[in-house]
Write a structure and sequence with these properties.
It contains seven helices and 17 strands. The chain is α/β, with parallel strands linked by helices. The chain has three domains: about 170 residues, 3-Layer(aba) Sandwich (Rossmann fold); about 55 residues, SH3 type barrels; about 80 residues, Beta Barrel (Elongation Factor Tu (Ef-tu), domain 3). A six-stranded antiparallel barrel has the order 12-15-14-13-16-17. A five-stranded parallel beta sheet has the order 3-2-1-4-7, with helices on both faces. Strands 9-8-11-10 form a four-stranded mixed beta sheet, with no helix packed on it. It is globular and about 65 Å long.
């Protein structure tokens, strides 16, 4: 890479992406980029004043939500401090089309989507790379905790879990393809969070102690039901009629519910029925609108099926493979046998039963620290 290489840093206004910008601006990237070859990019994705005050949604955006106007302000201040060009790209329309609307539709259909993976897979990296090209940038760099390396023996880019396993974000990045990986840098992959904050202090970043964002950017307080109600009202839409029976695992009818969108697999609270022992949602049937509940032990399952697959460390799965499968962001990957199951589908059979395998969530498969690939649980 030559001295005129340009790196576009995806700046979210948090300490991680700001530290990446500072590292590259101060030192250049590992292949020799100079200080003047770094630019900052922020994608404006959601107007956080939208839906404010409706159906219990707070009038003012709460601290701790990502992609807020305050974050854009913080990113701009960091860019000014570092002396690098900075651009804000409005992608609200596409974000709603590719992330928000699919999220709403999935929930209404009784599944539990994961919007951060949708955002990375269908919008952030794709749009960041397009925008980077338009301003003459060769690569993008982000504040994700992941490791990205080229394996010449396999002629493939390989995505690996970060050194800081508590911060590892490869679960949300399983959808990145080879062209995207080839043009993306993850400078924080070999650092721990405390080390990142220390770098931020050394670079004089005012937000070195800024807390991490905890909430999904368009869902204040994490109240999905509240958001769905307000969003559909804004759109002039009625939620589909999905009321139905609440039944025990033996088929006994325990009560009735108003909508399958009020439930997710593993849910305990707000079931609308009383019991001497705790009950959990075991299954949601979109066709019959029946929600099945039962004991915690009944949440355990030995297998899952996933579709809409993306492979990273291999071109495709052609034979059974031993992997560790991760079914939630905070789930410890569990040993499983992964097998092809028809066109664009796999079945993962676990060595030990796993709790609350949830349709709509991502399943990501690992070989050691390498991401083999992943898909969406059906």
């Amino acid at each position: 890479m030559t001295e005129n290489t340009t790196i576009a840093v995806a700046m979210s206004g948090g300490v991680d992406s700001s530290t990446v910008a500072a590292m590259l601006a101060h030192e250049g990237d590992r292949t020799g980029a100079s200080q003047n070859s770094v630019v900052g990019l922020t994608l404006q994705l959601w107007d956080q004043t939208r839906l404010a005050g409706k159906h219990g949604i707070p009038d003012a955006p709460k601290a701790g939500r990502c992609c807020s106007l305050d974050d854009v302000y913080d990113a701009r201040k960091v860019a000014e401090h570092l002396g690098i060009p900075y651009y804000v790209v409005n992608q609200q329309e596409r974000f709603e089309q590719d992330v928000v609307r699919p999220f709403v539709d999935e929930y209404l259909a009784g599944r539990t989507p994961i919007p951060c993976s949708l955002c990375n897979n269908h919008l952030k990296f794709d749009q960041l790379l397009q925008t980077a090209r338009s301003i003459g940038a060769d690569r993008i760099a982000t504040g994700h905790y992941a490791i990205n390396e080229y394996d010449s023996a396999r002629s493939r880019w390989i995505l690996k879990r970060a050194a800081d396993k508590a911060k590892d974000q490869t679960y949300f990045l399983f959808g990145l393809n080879q062209p995207q990986l080839s043009r993306t840098l993850f400078p924080l992959g070999r650092l721990t969070k405390p080390e990142v904050r220390e770098v931020a202090r050394q670079r004089g970043l005012a937000l070195a102690e800024k807390p991490d964002s905890q909430e999904i950017c368009f869902i204040p307080g994490g109240d999905y039901k509240q958001f769905l109600t307000a969003y559909l009202e804004e759109q002039g839409e009625q939620a589909p009629e999905t009321s139905g029976e609440l039944v025990a695992s033996n088929g006994e009818v325990l009560g009735h519910h108003e909508a399958i969108s009020n439930f997710t697999v593993g849910q305990r609270k707000g079931l609308g029925v009383s019991s001497l022992s705790p009950l959990y949602v075991l299954n949601i049937d979109p066709a019959s609108h029946r929600v099945t509940v039962g004991a915690d032990a009944e949440l355990a399952t030995r297998s899952l099926r996933a579709n809409r697959l993306n492979w990273i460390s291999i071109p495709e799965l052609v034979a059974p493979m031993r992997v560790r499968a991760k079914i939630r962001h905070r789930h410890e990957p569990a040993w499983a046998m992964l097998e092809p199951a028809g066109e664009d589908q796999v079945i993962a059979t676990f060595d030990e039963p796993q709790r609350a395998v949830t349709p709509g969530q991502s399943a990501v498969f690992y070989d050691g620290d390498e991401v083999v690939g992943g898909g969406w649980i059906v």
